[in-house]
Design goal:
This protein has 2 helices and 17 strands. The chain is mainly β and about 240 residues long. Strand 3 and strand 4 form a beta hairpin.
Length: about 240
């Protein structure tokens, strides 16, 4: 699939709601689309591509119905983050880059966990901040103005389907954020805040954000189908503000 076809395919995933909310529907295999300049892609990564030394989980969030949180070294955590070693700080130098249609992005991987009989989950908020310290442990306002906001161009959310790639320790969605937004030093700390469940409720285990690192891994097949070029050695195969 060429570049033009990939962009068209991604745009077909959008649907405006009755209240002018942009919905990016990733509930079918290899679906994709853009929100506020970021590219989101459903993926089918398997255990072999997400094992120890390949991905680094940096925040786990869990709460029924609606859940929120961000990565930090600070303890106790403030929202619904799990206070275990999988919730920790990351620096900009840790986050891999790759190129999609000649644009450089920073890559984040999301793994979700839902009940098989109620598999839909919404990512309702996604904000990314840069800071000089990695141990903030207060409310979202302390993180300042985000360099990326899912709602920055209008209210939006991403709709996902756990049954496309069920099980923990896999991957369900890539979030590609334009590298041009990360204007700080590579030594700065990246805070990723997310909220789930406002439109499609969380109902099972934790949601987990990770970065891919370490040994080379195979290229995601869905990226290949979109004609995406990868940078470096990253290649394939394979989870709130309360209402």
């Amino acid at each position: 699939m060429g570049v033009a076809a990939a962009l068209i395919a991604g745009s077909l995933c959008f649907s405006p709601s009755a209240h002018a909310v942009t919905v990016l529907d990733l509930t079918t295999a290899a679906s994709s689309g853009f929100i506020n300049g970021a590219f989101f892609l459903q993926t089918d990564l398997d255990h072999n591509a997400t094992g120890t030394g390949v991905i680094d989980p940096f925040v786990r969030i869990q709460r029924s119905v609606s859940e929120q949180g961000y990565n930090t070294d600070g303890r106790p955590t403030f929202y619904n983050e799990k206070s275990d070693p999988h919730t920790h700080s990351i620096q900009l130098k840790d986050v891999p880059t790759l190129t999609i249609n000649s644009i450089v992005y920073r890559e984040f991987l999301l793994d979700i966990d839902q009940n098989n009989n109620s598999p839909l989950l919404s990512l309702d908020e996604l904000q990314i901040f840069l800071k000089n310290t990695g141990d903030i442990k207060t409310n979202l306002a302390s993180l300042g103005i985000p360099i990326f906001d899912l709602d920055g161009a209008g209210e939006a959310y991403v709709k996902m389907n756990y049954n496309l790639n069920p099980g923990n320790g896999k991957g369900d969605m890539f979030a590609y954020i334009p590298n041009s937004l990360f204007t700080g030093s590579d030594e700065q700390y990246v805070y990723l805040y997310s909220q789930f469940g406002l439109n499609y409720a969380s109902n099972a285990g934790f949601e987990e954000w990770s970065i891919r690192r370490g040994a080379p891994i195979p290229e995601p097949s869905s990226l290949s189908l979109l004609g995406v070029g990868l940078l470096g050695f990253f290649r394939r195969k394979k989870k709130t503000r309360d209402t």
